Amino acid sequence: MNDFTHRVCAIDPALTCPQPSRRGVLMALAAPAVAALACVPGRAAADDALAAFDAAARREPWLRPLKGVSDATGDVHTPTLLQEGRWPDELRGRFHRNGPALFERGGRRYEHWFDGDGMVQQFSITGASGAPRIAHRGRLVRTAKLQRERAAGRFLVGAFGTRIAREAGAPIQGPDAFNTANTNALEHAGRVLAMWEGGSAHALDPSDLSTLGPVTWRDDLAQVPFSAHPKLDPHGHLWNIGTFGRRLVVWHVGPDGKLVDARVTSLPLPGAMVHDMAVTERHLVVPIPPLILDFAALQRGVGAAGAFRFDAAQPLRVLVMDKADLARQRIFELPPEMLFHVGNACECADGVVELSYVGSPDAGFLTGQAMAMMKGQTAADDIPSSLRVARMDLRSGRATVERFDDAVEFPRCDPRRVGRPTRWLLSPTGWRRDAPAGFFHALQLRDLHTGRTQRHDFGPGEVVEEHVVVPRPGREAELDAWLLGTSHDWRRGQTVLNLFDAAHLDEGPIARAWLPYALPYGFHGNFTAG
Amino acid sequence: MSGTVRLVTSPPAVPLGTLLMATLVAHAPTAAQASEPAASAAQTCTVIHIEGLRPAQGRVMLAVYGDAESYQRRPLAAFSQVMASGTGQRFEVCGLNGREVALSLFQDLNANGRLDFNLVGIPSEPWGTSGKAPAMSAPTWASSRIVLDGAPLRIAMSP
């Protein structure tokens, strides 16, 4: 492990900055981003929520990434990260991640984790051979929302979980007025797409993460929701959905980044929150949890998070549609569960569509925990979500669900197997009682054939984020791959980039790269080789 | 600012199409009725400043409604104005002072005579309304109604 110390009071302008060590000053000189992130002059907390969070974050350092960045600290660049272990010669490319990052403005703190303005992180691994150069760049996405609020010095529009009183003035043109571009980042056809669930994707220049603007795939598609979990199939085609009231939009973008088509069909449960989807060779698989937006509550001014109702009397629906003909549909009804993320799907047997996903008994995280953590409140319960595999017979209409006893989220599969049979699923997990409650501290590969797992425990001092599977160039076997992702060492106050050999996850990381600061906790990302 | 249009209250000479959408509605006549009528000196007028328009693109379309029943159906008056190079337009609505009305506007960027919508029913052209526009739903008579009292009005178009 590396042993450098430096000034890492990082992204929390309200926290007291420790005096830097001599080595820390040198590090800061070498990496301007450190100086950019460190020690913005403090200001008095302007409301109780802000003060409560700051007090909690002083006591519980693992909360500090939830302080977020400011306009001044939201653009960072560290050209050379300190490495340990051996980064493979064949691993070259860019790893992009996205997540909510700017939570406070004008003395107001957002009340829900999902509210923050998006910041895209880029880890670029370059160099011909030998030890690579690993750089980090992070930039706030310049959405119209961010730019207007930055100019005004305060939040102007309501967020997912925070009500912001809107003043009289210009009406809202559409959902991009609220678009935070904060959920996922994927490089496709030469541009990085920063995605959010309810509006346009934003295009970023991969060379410097500058925002090119919202993507309008066709004139009549401006602001049509392009959700945050598109699936890139092994042929380079990008499939996605978007929901708007009673409508479900199906997007198909070719490998060249040009729109193939956008079609509209009906959403079987109008107003439902549909966060993720899967593809198979022939089908689109859209899970629809019984989490429904109460429009009347929304009109009364309740934030969206408070206007969602989880109806445990309704099933978890799975809409299976023929890619070639969206009218050819079948809806399966699974036991009632909340679902954010899928692992993968396939036509794994004749007439049977298999879908792996992470389910939880209710939407308590969305409507409770994701708000409590923004106040610095500790999670009361264990992580409630675990892995499932549904097998849905298109001929009989029957479905079975296999349940695994674990605590996971953010499932990922081998990208070469998107839409095809997958044996292994990767996800963060947790079980320790001495780790921060509600956060992951380990990484798990689940063998769906045997049910067995490989795990690496980072220990109670690190919070583990989503990791992705990166195939070794020229190899085919599913575990002929690396696992790449980030964790937050809250004792050092630093984010770390981790690399594992997928065949030996339990042996720990084969290489790491340390950022000289802590990043806000992110949601999702993707690696692009090259 | 450019293009002051004086308007006297009279029904539009062209039929109005009904524009339907899921969440946001603006409505205006399908053809221009811009005019420079000879408003009598006795008429009182209210000046309307429209802000946030896109310069030199299409036409500004405006309709004035008189009650809930006729809102978005039968305007008291309607007209349009070709956009000039600025981002503002100034209109005068005459003969309605003291009345409760609702104003509905859009900028017909492509000059096709109607407000365009995207695939899921969201307006793809700038729109505006009197009163306070709901955040993500169509304006209504209740949200739009105002009393014209001769004081100048400012209406901002959606960005």
- Choose one word for the global shape of chain B: globular
Strand % of chain A is 35-45%
Number of helices of chain B: 1
* Relative strand content of chain B: 25-35%
Over the alpha carbons, how many angstroms does the gyration radius of chain B reach? Answer: 14 Å
The percentage helix of chain B is: under 10%
Q: Count the strands of chain B?
A: 9
**Uncertain spans of chain B, ≥5 residues at pLDDT below 50?**
1-5, 8-42
Topology, number of strands of chain A: 33
What's the helix-strand series of chain B? EEEEEEEHEE
Helix/sheet category of chain B: mainly beta
**Integer average pLDDT of chain B:** 76
- The CA-CA distance between the termini of chain A, in Å, is 28 Å
Helix content, binned percent of chain A:
10-25%
Rounded mean pLDDT of chain A is 89
Shape of chain A: globular
Rg of chain A: 22 Å
N-end to C-end Cα span of chain B: 18 Å
Largest sheet of chain B: 5 strands, antiparallel
Strand order of the largest sheet of chain A: 1-7-6-3-33
What is the domain tally of chain B?
1
How would you describe this protein?
The complex is a heterodimer of chains A (530) and B (159). Chain A is mostly beta strands and 530 residues long. Chain A contains 7 helices and 33 strands. With 159 residues, chain B is mainly β. Chain B has one domain (4-156). In chain B, 3% of the residues lie in helices and 30% in strands. Chain B has one helix at 141-144, and strands at 5-8, 45-51, 59-65, 77-82, 89-94, 100-108, 127-129, 146-147, 153-156. The radius of gyration of chain B is 14 Å and the shape is globular. Mean pLDDT of chain B is 76; it is low at 1-5 and 8-42. The chains are: A mainly beta (530), B mainly beta (159).
